Amino acid sequence: MKNILKDFTPPFLWRLAKKIVTIGEKPEWEYIPEGWQAQKKDPNIKGWNMESVKEAYQKMWPRFLKNIESTLPLAISPESNSSQRDNLIFHNMIITYGYVLAVSTRNKSSISMLDWGGGIGHYYLLSKKLCPDLEINYHCKDLPILAEYGQTLFPEAHFYSDETCLNQKYDFILASSSLHYCEDWQSILTGLAQATEGYLFITRLPIVVQASSYVMIQRVYKNGYDTEYLGWCLNKEEFINSAANSGLKLIQEFYNGENPVILNAPESCQYMGFLFKKIV
Predict the structure, then answer these.
(1) Separation CA 24–CA 176 (nearest Å)
(2) Do 226 and 50 meet the contact criterion of CB atoms below 8 Å apart?
(3) Helix, strand, coil shares of the chain as percentages rounded to 5?
(4) DSSP string computed for 8-39
(5) How many Cα neighbours within 13 Å face the side chain of 34?
(6) Distance from the CA of 40 to the CA of which of 32, 109, 222, 276 falls in 20 to 30 A?
(7) pLDDT, tens digit (0-9, with 9 covering 90-100), for 54-64
(8) What angle do CA 272, 147, 27 make, to 5 degrees?
């Protein structure tokens, strides 16, 4: 029907119609001045614990398995159904993760690992791909729908839908694209710091330098997820100081390469990674 209408509509009218539709759409990313209170008022902000999220993961899982089995570059997104290998942002993030994993597990043949916000276990397989000789006792914390499904994929692993995973110690903790979705991110950071006996890698974290930390919304309908959710853009100095106060030493910073355009934001963000070591 869309193609038929386009064939019979003058070009200038078609361009005008597209512009009107675009104006009526909400942006994918937007600054939320009222902060986390917005989720109490807007029923569209459903969060990540959604059946549609699990269904999207299930749909993309076979492609992800096929992508990591080959020797082609790991320029892939765990959350994509594409077979393309030319995404430099994800290549950068995965190879950076490989470096961090190697540093964090140096001189070890086995480790205990916590993947905070790890979905259904994508980084379990990526870790084994990047360090095939490393034995990993894998623990993953995420929302109930994803944790339950992840446990069916990896019966030998340990999945949690609450914070009881922080009651034990780990050699290595990963938090990728997860900490900024926690309203009280400082207490979670403290919990992660207390749970590591070695290294903590927090990555895909939206960072601003001049502005104070602020809240944004992401609407992910085009990615197949029928939901919207809030997240922080964290001030870099505030974040690093909070990590230091939690007993962590900053080892290295990384750029991820993601910098989404957030409508009306006080400052554009840059997604970054931070490798910390527990201060003994």
Answers:
(1) 33
(2) yes
(3) 40, 25, 35
(4) TS-HHHHHHHHHHHHHHSPPSEEE-TTGGGHH
(5) 6
(6) 222
(7) 998 999 999 99
(8) 50
pLDDT digits (tens, 9 = 90+) for 183-216: 999 999 999 999 999 999 999 999 999 999 999 9
- In sign, the C-alpha dihedral spanning 165, 167, 168, 170 is positive
SS3 state of residue 138: strand
**For residue 124, what are the contacts with CB-CB under 8 A and spacing of at least 6?**
115, 118, 136, 138, 140, 154, 157
Q: 253: which 2 tokens?
A: 């910073």
DSSP character at residue 181: G
pTM, full prediction: 0.89
Q: Which residues of 205-230 are buried (b: 16+ CB within 10 A; e: fewer)?
A: bbbbeeeebbbbbbbbeeeebebbbb
Q: What residue type is 21 in one-letter code?
A: V
* Rounded Cα distance, 264 and 150, in Å: 37
Which domains are present in the chain?
Answer: 28-278 (3.40.50.150)
